[in-house]
Amino acid sequence: MTQQELAAKLNIRQSTLSQYENGQRQIPLNTLIQLALLFDTSTDYLLGLTNERNPYPRITNKSE
Fold first, then answer.
1. Which residues neighbour 37 within 8 Å (Cβ) at sequence distance 6 or greater?
2. What does the pLDDT look like over 20-46, one tens digit per residue?
3. 44-64 as b/e, with b when 16 or more CB fall inside 10 Å?
4. In terms of CATH architecture, what is 3-46?
């Protein structure tokens, strides 16, 4: 996936995504969560806090 395609999925500009990747800008929490959901992984994995790529079990709607 190109930066342009990923930026479109995140509803941000490609230049903003590039700044996240290059450490020139901090990634907002909501964008980090979107990335984890998009790539079916955990935020810990994206942040380099674990080598485990598989996500934790997702929270389900408790009213169901």
1. none
2. 999 999 999 999 999 999 999 999 999
3. ebbeeeeeeeeeeeeeeeeee
4. Orthogonal Bundle (1.10)
